[in-house]
Amino acid sequence: MALNLQDKQAIVAEVSAEVAKAQSIVVAEYRGITVGDLTTLRKNARAKGVYLRVLKNTLARRAVEGTPFAGLAEQMTGPLIYGFSADPVAAPKVLSDFAKGNDKLVLRAGSFDGKLLDKAGVQALANIPSREELLARLLGVMQAPVSGFARLLAALAEKKQAETA
């Protein structure tokens, strides 16, 4: 079904809004993926806060024009699915993890912090722990001395009680 000019403008406006919020964009070729697998990918993306969309490449190029992601335009050829995320590692992680289990999804390129990434760069970005994971690790490191001190105090109290008894 052909899109009229108003539909195209609406799509470009919607995608441009997502690009403005995004810190990373990943582009992957999806040729040959079944509808069920694509539905699973979309469900995983939604759960991780990733905006995932199949777009006409000309509309995607217009959406990234004049943004730090403009360098990605030359990679936009063929049947592509685009992943946009405000968390720098969410989109690369979702698409990279899915590509590991489904060889028909081929990571093409990505962009982060104004830099163009190849497939290896996208996978490297995907291997970085997410913000939530890093915060959880930091909290664990910060709580370790406090919990150790609390155990020490409890042991001293038990020792003192044993001495008085």
Number of domains: 2
Strand order of the largest sheet: 2-3-1-4-5
CATH fold name of the largest domain: Alpha-Beta Plaits
> What's the CATH H-level superfamily name of the largest domain?
Ribosomal protein L10, N-terminal RNA-binding domain
Task: Specify the helix fraction band.
Answer: 55-70%
Question: Which shape, going by the Cα principal axes?
Answer: elongated
Which CATH first-tier class of the largest domain would you pick? Alpha Beta
Summed over residues and divided by their number, the pLDDT gives a mean of 88
Strand content: 15-25%
What is the succession of H and E elements?
A: HEHEHEHEEHH
What profile does the largest beta sheet have?
Answer: 5 strands, antiparallel
Continuous helix count: 6
Q: What's the end-to-end separation, in Å?
A: 87 Å
| Radius of gyration, taken over Cα atoms and rounded to an integer in Å | 23 Å
Secondary structure category: alpha+beta
CATH architecture of the largest domain: 2-Layer Sandwich
Tell me the number of strands. Answer: 5
Oligomeric form: single chain
Any low-confidence stretches, pLDDT <50, length ≥5?
none
